[in-house]
Records
---
Amino acid sequence: MALVDVSRLPQHVAIIMDGNGRWAQSRGKPRTAGHERGADAVRAIMRAARRLGIPTLTLYAFSEQNWDRPRAEINALVDLLCDCLVSERDELIDNEIRLNAIGRLHKLPTRAQSKLHALMDATASFGGMTMTLALSYGGREELVDAARVLARRVREGSLEPDEIDQAALEASLPSMDCGPVDLLIRTGGEQRISNFLLWGSAYAEFYFTDELWPDFSANSLYCAIRAYQERERRFGLVPGAQHAAATNESRDELERAI
């Protein structure tokens, strides 16, 4: 089992859960069987992240582009989502995990919206961990929606065009409520981010694995975190400068306190 340093955990882990269909097809099963097994992996990773003390976990559950899949598969995915929102309710509440969701949620069927919002309301006050489901989500679509929000504010007179800066745009992105992504994991062997959290992943560390999502385990998560901890995050600075900047900032704060 991979060992991780719990004092240097990523604060926000995002996962592109890829490979459910291929997992099922390689076993001669319908794609829906892969999605069902993938739901078990979600539960295992949620528990592992909670045990480690990772504050934020964001899962790419259904993209805006997934609406183009066969209707039968979409219906199966919606049914699975509804079932999980019922079956996982007690575990989320018992472990004080706040459920959040991002994306064009209004496009989900009414029954899914109802169960989703009910569980989000029931867990809204929890602070143990936040698990965000990206549903009917697309990074480009989120940026377009944010631009529309800012444009309406300009039209209404509550915002000047010159006041639109990175902070203003970021404040209009629901995906940034939990902060930027530290570690982005993609299963299934593909090495792209597929329109996921484009703004929040600007300085994320990427971890790609050939494991299909249904096979992704707690130890798989530990391996990803271990790889993350072996990297130096520079945020555009030269090697060592990030640590020096943090040290100087701490020294300045101490001097101000004195």
Note: The chain has nine helices and six strands.
---
Amino acid sequence: MPAPLLNRQRVGLLARGVVRRSRKARRLQPPFPFGAPPVPVTVDAVEPAQTLGPHYDSEWARRPSARVARRAIVEGVLRPGLAVVAKPERIGLDRLSELDADAPTIFVANHHSHLDTSLLLTSIPHRWRNRLVVMAAADYFFDKRVKATVSALAIGAVPMDRYGTGRASADQAAELLEQGNSLVIFPEGGRSPDGWGQPFKGGAAYLALRCNAPIVPVFIAGSSKVWRKGQRLPKPARTAVVFGEPVHARDGETTRRLNARVEAAVTSLGDEFTSDWWQARKRFHQGDAPSMTGPRASSWRRAWALGDRTTRESTRPSWPR
């Protein structure tokens, strides 16, 4: 049989299958008024409003009752679970003493694991934690109704369109800051695929300049050993959350320069954690701090160069209050 005739037969079979499925779907739909009313042929059907992804309305999760429930989840579920699985050590909390607790603050951290959000929620002091909002990927945390509801309630997540070109997410984040909330932002845009950091995007720097808010750099170590990207279940390991000196925007500073300073601050905290404060500060001011993004090489070379940069002999963790 000629090839064109075979192709026409296949197309015909596929078309008949689509028609049968559409007819079956129509039979399963309840009739009006229990279902949607029929749309006349001459009228354009109105597309239903999108309620998931970046369009998910999370305002309900910032009401007083939701904040009380979230605090119970953080203190009663996340904190005991992390104490067993991650054994977190908190370092540098004294560096936040000069910040105004009533002023909105942006906490910026590296991102290696889904555990990072829980580590920050249980490490950031209560004076910010009660009004803390996590900017989360809309395509991952808000793609399904149940996941979106749990994310908004348990961690105070707000959808952020990390692939969009509009300014809707930035405007929403700026509005949250103006309302007195503090933000948690992972400027890498996603979890590290291999344990090395990724270049920072400028969203946090833009918000700091727009809303005149300080940025607190945070380095999270060891979370990828507990629950790395692609790993199904966590396994116990030690982690650390290192807070740095707040970064304030300078007069006339651009978003790019402020973003570079914030990324350098987080990189220096990683150097401080694996060595000591004095050596890290010397390398920071000399511009010789180890790169957080790793060498530009093959995967095995990057894995070899990564070594054991996320562990050190740690003391008993302290829980901030």
Note: The longest strand covers residues 215-221.
---
Amino acid sequence: MISSEPFWNASLEELKRGYIREGEHYICLLCGKTFEIGLIYRDEDIFYEAERYTRAHIERSHQSVFHYLIQLDKKFTGLTDHQNNLLRAFYEGKSDAEVQKELGIGSASTIRNHRFGLKEKERQSKVFLTMMELLKEKDKHAPAEC
């Protein structure tokens, strides 16, 4: 579903949440499944309104937005396999020593350096994203969305 227009047009907050509201529906950005606002959805013995059921769907079907995104091909994430493994371990809340032991690399200080490097990539990404948004607003000749 990664090639879907709603996914690529979603804001950062919508991507983090994993769904958008479009008209009278919530749409899962990860698989495209829709949930109609105003309906009550039943899951075993629990009844959910549409937005809460959409969140439950993401947890049940995709584990989390993070888990869905981290398994994407590197052409979408820009992450090396090494960075991907580090992010997975960090997301699981592992300490630097635990990450070092699990991945068998360097020392705890090496892992701290990797954390710093990923934070630097985050800062660079924010600046780049801002520049691209500004360019999109100004450039009348920009190619259509991917």
Note: The mean pLDDT is 92.
